[in-house]
Amino acid sequence: MELNIILKPECTTCATPGSKKKVLEMISDLVASQYPELSSQEIFESLLTREKMGSTGIGNGIAIPHGRLDNIDTPIAVLIKCEQPIAFEAIDKQPVDILFALLVPSDQCQQHLSTLSAMAEKLSDKQTLKQLRRINDEQELYEVITA
């Protein structure tokens, strides 16, 4: 699935959330503001449920928090660039400054896995990662990640 279909420019932001819990709340609030049919609490609980299974911090300053929701038909993505890296219990024990969050319909597990895999691959590209870390403009951040 094309990233620009699941990631709206309004769901791309530069921020300083301060903690893992705060960034998950930020993701939840951002999605709920763009999709009024979804509750921030429901989104947060979905993300937190997955984090309790193990951190989605994949290393190299990147986290890919994700969750499943019953009341959506298509995946929803959020991209956050943290101005100050946050502790995220990543596998390499390093703080995280790039988060790509993904919410998927509960019945689309396979698509969920392929989208996560594609994003992990894109974020492992050193040139893309370097560009993302240099940018402080949300529109430019969106353009780089969807290019």
From TrEMBL:
User: Please, which domain of life does this record's source organism belong to?
Assistant: Bacteria
Q: Which residues form the PTS EIIA type-2 domain?
A: 4-147
Tell me the SUPFAM superfamilies matching this sequence: Phoshotransferase/anion transport protein
InterPro entries assigned to the protein according to its UniProt record, in alphabetical order:
PTrfase/Anion_transptr (IPR016152), PTS_EIIA_type-2_dom (IPR002178), PTS_Nitro_regul (IPR006320), PTS_SugarTrans_NitroReg (IPR051541)
In alphabetical order, the GO MF annotations are: protein kinase activator activity; protein-N(PI)-phosphohistidine-sugar phosphotransferase activity
One GO BP annotation is: phosphoenolpyruvate-dependent sugar phosphotransferase system
One short Pfam name that applies is PTS_EIIA_2
PROSITE patterns referenced in this protein's UniProt entry, alphabetically: PTS_EIIA_TYPE_2, PTS_EIIA_TYPE_2_HIS
Recorded protein name is PTS IIA-like nitrogen-regulatory protein PtsN
Q: Which organism is it from?
A: Parashewanella curva
Taxonomic lineage of the native organism: Bacteria, Pseudomonadati, Pseudomonadota, Gammaproteobacteria, Alteromonadales
